[in-house]
Amino acid sequence: MAGRRAAPSATADPRPRRGPPRRRRRRYASALEAGDTEAVVATFAPDGYFREPIGRHYTHTGTPALRSFFTSCFSAGGGIGLQHCAVTDDGTRCAVEYNCVRWGEHDLPPQAGLSVCERGPDGLLAAVRVYDDVEGPLARP
């Protein structure tokens, strides 16, 4: 129904979690926004991976592969601007709903997506899986 919102679940706590998981999530998001390859890579475990939305064949595992992938992503003149809409976080895994609104120097019409992040025991990202259909300014080779 237009203009109506579902009532929140009685068992759901609408307050955002505080503490290390939230700070780590912000560190990754800030580095992505800034286009800082080294800062993004530093949020991942040494064997962590990033899986692109187009499938498992486009998974970048380990520090060298992540560095290469994010360097390519940021080659459009800067970072990736996301508007975070909703976050569900249990301290180990989180799902982030977002709108992509900028890629490098290019403003984009808002394009919806979802990322699922999993942290290892040390708090570093073990996995980031992205589900979206964002049309970025870069052409795939």
Automatic annotation (TrEMBL):
What's a Pfam family in this record? SnoaL_2
Tell me the segments the record calls region Disordered: 1-25
**Residue span, SnoaL-like domain:** 26-100
SUPFAM superfamilies cross-referenced by the UniProt entry: NTF2-like
Q: What is this protein called?
A: Nuclear transport factor 2 family protein
Name the species this protein comes from: Amycolatopsis acidiphila
What does UniProt list as this organism's lineage?
Bacteria, Bacillati, Actinomycetota, Actinomycetes, Pseudonocardiales
